[in-house]
Amino acid sequence: MQRLRSLKRGWQLLKSSCEGAAKHVNTSPSISRSYSHLHPQGHNSFGLLFDIDGVLVRGRTPIPAAKQCFRNLVDRNGKYKVPVVFVTNAGNCMRQTKAEHLSHLLEVEVSPDQVMLSHSPLRMFTQFHNMCVLVSGQGPVEEVAHNLGFQDVVTIDMLREAYPLLDVVDHNRRPKGSIPPTKGLRPIDAVILFGEPIRWETNLQLIVDVLLTNGNPDNTWSSMQYPHIPVLACNMDLLWMAEAKNPRFGHGMFLVCLESLYKKVTGHELKYEALIGKPSVVTYNYAELLIRQQAERLGWTSPVKRLYAIGDNPMADIYGANLYNRYLQASWSTKAQKQAKSGGGGVDPLADTVDDALKMTSAELGGASSVYGAEEDLPEGCSSILVCTGVYSRDQQELLSDTTQTVTEQQIFHGHRDFRFDPSLTQPSFVVQDVKEAVELVFQQEGCPLE
Q1: Could you tell me which of 225, 250, 257 has the C-alpha nearest to residue 236?
Q2: Which residues lie across from 154 on neighbouring strands?
Q3: Is residue 442 domain-shared with residue 324, that is, in the same domain?
Q4: Of the candidates 82, 65, 26, 94, which has an alpha carbon nearest to the alpha carbon of residue 299?
Q5: Is residue 145 located within the same domain as residue 105?
Q6: pLDDT by residue (tens digit) across 381-424?
Q7: Which superkingdom, per the lineage (predicted)?
Q8: Cα 419–chain centre separation
Q9: 204-248 pLDDT, tens per residue?
Q10: Domain for residue 11, yes or no?
């Protein structure tokens, strides 16, 4: 209960800060002009959530359709027509850096407020911000952690330097000559996994050391240290698409290795305090908050009614959007049931949807059920659109025609261990060739002119 209360406080603080920022922005003509008011009255009130890798770019190379797509999404002055947020499971950089990169590739202005990285929701986990946390990943992980609100940060390199005898897989990195003394560090209170590291063997070894010593890696291992200190992981993607013809290993693969090693050594399952990034519901809650902020900058007074999530990965983008849509339907149904009860009405016919929501695992919700805002703020639904320019390819994969089938040799589950395999959640609302077709489809669905 204490964890849930902390998450709720963090979410409300984040929500109020975003809304306050949006109100402040509305008073600034230079920023409010960054958007072209397609429907100021909110008649066609919808927002777009774009994945990046495999949808807009492959590695460092823009997908050709992406530039044309964004030419259509902005007016002649380069201003956006609808609220747009980029939702990526990448997390090895700052939002500002990713925004600048996208601006260069797409040849339109992208602001940091439009970018959501896999670790962005960690801002709401305020109960960990004053703890000593070990961070794993690559890029400016220490800067990223401080930017998210963490005050006391230890990197893998700092841990390795303090305890020079821990990392010995690479013979060239072993201490030479006399054994150096350990410097000692304050005990680690929690572990945060931002993304795949460069030296997997080093990170795997040192993280297991920390977990088996209750945060004191100079101590002796003890399998009695269970449950271990909290672990928060961002980005569960098993695979992702770069320039190569075939998908590349993602952070989800690193998590599989860590889980397997921990269980092999201890006999216990590695436990996560939180799994963040697509396809968790809390990630889409956060993305919707950013969409709402963009809508307020547009001057829209009506809430955003519909979201469209465009992605290339059935197990991350499509599963996540559909899971969030199920969450939205359950939330609205719950609200209707409460209203019916207070008014003496009968049973809500959407009760089965609520049952679906109750079946979601805590990993899938990521705390969203207890920390999100009032139901009246929620969109009516979220549609998923699958493109064929990334992980998914019509030539190599077939979507399930029978969503009642379970995992077989022909249908391998690429989702995280703590997420259930629900074939229906991997079925997109629409399948199109590329992001340009996806945006054209959305505007057609909404009955809005795109050009």
Answers
A1: 250
A2: 134
A3: yes
A4: 26
A5: no
A6: 999 999 999 999 877 666 655 545 544 444 678 899 999 888 88
A7: Eukaryota
A8: 14
A9: 999 999 999 999 999 999 978 899 999 999 999 999 888 899 999
A10: no
